[in-house]
Specification:
The chain has 8 helices and 4 strands; from the N terminus they run H-H-H-E-E-H-H-E-H-E-H-H. The chain is an alpha/beta fold. Helix 6 links the parallel strand 3 and strand 4.
Length: about 140
């Protein structure tokens, strides 16, 4: 799918995505750093978030090159006003490193394992500071 979307000369999908984005839908470039996406696709007028591929996140503490890559992607995105999600953080050490680098958001087993929707509310309430809990409890989070 990514190759079809990114090969816009044939598909014209970029114009459709701009229209969708103008309607308020946020667009993400997933698995950044691998696959077909290149720096030419990192445009703050076209995407809202980059998701750094898990291959750069796993073992980030043992692999200095991965640290440099994640830091560079994070700084690039920050400079362009694009938010970052680091995928695949599976240990507390990886989570700590990503936080130190300045990743906006982290996704992975160090945060939580996948769970059914009915357990999500309880999980969020247990990890939300008291003051913010009022919003979570009063909101329509099912």
């Amino acid at each position: 799918v990514e190759s079809v979307i990114l090969d816009d000369e044939k598909t014209g999908i970029a114009a459709k995505l701009r229209h969708i984005r103008a309607a308020g839908v946020h667009l993400e470039l997933d698995d950044f750093g691998t696959g077909y996406a290149s720096l030419s696709h990192v445009n703050p007028n076209e995407i809202d978030r980059l998701k750094i591929d898990r291959r750069f996140v796993q073992n980030i503490n043992a692999n200095g090159d991965n640290t440099k890559i994640v830091r560079a992607i994070t700084e690039l995105a920050r400079g362009l006003g694009i938010s970052i999600v680091a995928e695949g953080a599976e240990t507390e050490a990886e989570l700590d490193k990503l936080m130190a680098i300045g990743c906006d958001q982290v996704q992975g087993y160090s945060i939580a394992f996948p769970m059914p929707q009915d357990q999500t509310r309880e999980w969020l309430v247990a990890r939300t500071p008291k003051r913010a809990r009022l919003t979570v409890l009063q909101g329509r989070l099912a």
